[in-house]
Design goal:
Blueprint: H1 3-15, H2 18-24, H3 29-43, E1 48-50, E2 55-57, H4 59-86, E3 91-97, H5 99-116, E4 120-126, H6 133-136, E5 140-144, E6 153-160, E7 162-166, H7 168-174, E8 187-193, E9 196-197, E10 200-205, E11 208-213, E12 215-220, H8 223-231, E13 237-240, H9 245-250, E14 254-255, E15 261-262, E16 265-271, H10 279-301
Helix pairs in contact: 1-2, 1-3, 1-4, 2-3, 5-8, 5-10
Length: about 300
C-alpha cells in the first residue's frame, strides 16, 4: 500500500470528488482514480459510495480514513523530527505572498534563500485574496494581520506601520494636507477586496481618532497596482510602509502628515498545521524577520517612521 495512494484517498475524502482531489494534487483525474482503486483493492472494501453528484464515505471509509490520516501525520512528524535532528534543509516551499510585498521585496529574499539552500525548491502564489491552504495548495502564507483561525499556526514577523503617501509633484499640484479633514479634496487611491472598496481611512494622533470618507477615481484588488498609481502621481494612498519602502527611501513618494498615524498592522508567516513547520520554514521565518527589521531600521533612520516599529 503506497503512501502516495493514501494521500490521494484522503484528498478525495476531503473534496468528495476525485476530479477536485486530482486538481489540488496537480495530477490527472485518471491517476487519482487509479490510486483509489489500488487502495480499495488492497483493502478488499469500497471506501466511498458513488452517487451521480458526488462521493460520500462508506461505513468502511468512515472507520479506515481517520486512522489512516493519523498514521500519515505521525509519519510526517517522524520525518520532520529526523530532519530537525540532522539539520536537513530541503523540500518544496509552497508559499502564498501578497502582490506588492511579494513582487517587490520577498521574491528577491527567496532567491537569496534558495542560493544558500540549493536543495529547497519554490512554488509561489501571488495574490491579495484571502488564502485557503487546501484549495490553493500552499503550505505557508506571508500575510498582513494575525491569523484569526485558532486551527492555524503562525509566527509574527514584525510590526508594520501604515503610511499616507504621494509624490511631491502631486502635492505641488493639489496641496499638502495638514489635517485628515483636508483629505476630502484629494484623490484617494483605493484597495478593493471582494467588491468592497476600502475608501474610509482612519488616523490617530495623541490618542485621538479620525475617520475620513475619501473620494477617488481608482480602485484595484491588487496592492501593487495601488502602489504604482501612487508612484505615478495619480493620487494619495494609505499603504504598508514595507510595500512602499523602496519608493519612500528613494524619494519617489514622500510620507504625508506623519504626525497623523494610519492604522498599523503586523506581518505573519502562517501555516495550516504543525507538519508544515519544517526546518526550511523555520529558517525562512528567521530570514523574513531579519530582512524586515533591516528595512524598518532604514525607514526609522530616514525619519519616515518612528522607532516604535522596531519594538
Amino acid at each position: 500500500m503506497l503512501i502516495e495512494d493514501l494521500q490521494v484517498v484522503l484528498k478525495v475524502a476531503e473534496f468528495r470528488s476525485i476530479t477536485a482531489a486530482a486538481a489540488n494534487l496537480d495530477m490527472r483525474t485518471a491517476t487519482a482514480s487509479a490510486a483509489l482503486k489500488r487502495i480499495e483493492g488492497n483493502l478488499g472494501a469500497e471506501l466511498f459510495v458513488r452517487t451521480t453528484r458526488q462521493l460520500r464515505l462508506s461505513s468502511a471509509g468512515e472507520r479506515f480514513l481517520p486512522q489512516c490520516q493519523q498514521a500519515l501525520q505521525m509519519l510526517d512528524q517522524a520525518k520532520l523530527n529526523l530532519k530537525d535532528d540532522l539539520d536537513i534543509v530541503d523540500g518544496e516551499l509552497r508559499i502564498s505572498l501578497s502582490s506588492d510585498l511579494g513582487r517587490n521585496l520577498v521574491i528577491p529574499w527567496l532567491d537569496d534563500f534558495m542560493d544558500s539552500y540549493p536543495n529547497v525548491s519554490l512554488r509561489s502564489t501571488i495574490s491579495d485574496s484571502n488564502i485557503d491552504f487546501y484549495r490553493d495548495g500552499v503550505d505557508i502564507a506571508l500575510r498582513y494581520g494575525s491569523p484569526d483561525d485558532s486551527n492555524l499556526y503562525g509566527f509574527k514577523i514584525c510590526n508594520v506601520p501604515g503610511v499616507l503617501c504621494a509624490t511631491q509633484q502631486y502635492l505641488d499640484q493639489y496641496g499638502i494636507p495638514e489635517h485628515p479633514q483636508d483629505l476630502t479634496s484629494h484623490n484617494g487611491l483605493f484597495y478593493q477586496l471582494y467588491d468592497v472598496i476600502h475608501d474610509t481611512w482612519k488616523f490617530t494622533r495623541q490618542g485621538q481618532n479620525y475617520k475620513i470618507k475619501m473620494n477617488g477615481n481608482r480602485a484595484a484588488n491588487d496592492g501593487d497596482l495601488v502602489r504604482r498609481w501612487a508612484v505615478a502621481g495619480k493620487g494619495i494612498a494609505v499603504k504598508s510602509c514595507l510595500d512602499m519602502s523602496a519608493d519612500l527611501l528613494s524619494g519617489r513618494v514622500i510620507s504625508v502628515m506623519p504626525e497623523f498615524k494610519p492604522r498599523s498592522t503586523e506581518l505573519w508567516l502562517i501555516c495550516p498545521s504543525r507538519q508544515s513547520i519544517t526546518p526550511a520554514v523555520r529558517l525562512l521565518r528567521d530570514t523574513f524577520r531579519e530582512k524586515c527589521r533591516d528595512v524598518l531600521k532604514q525607514l526609522v533612520e530616514n525619519g519616515i517612521i518612528d522607532s516604535s516599529a522596531l519594538d
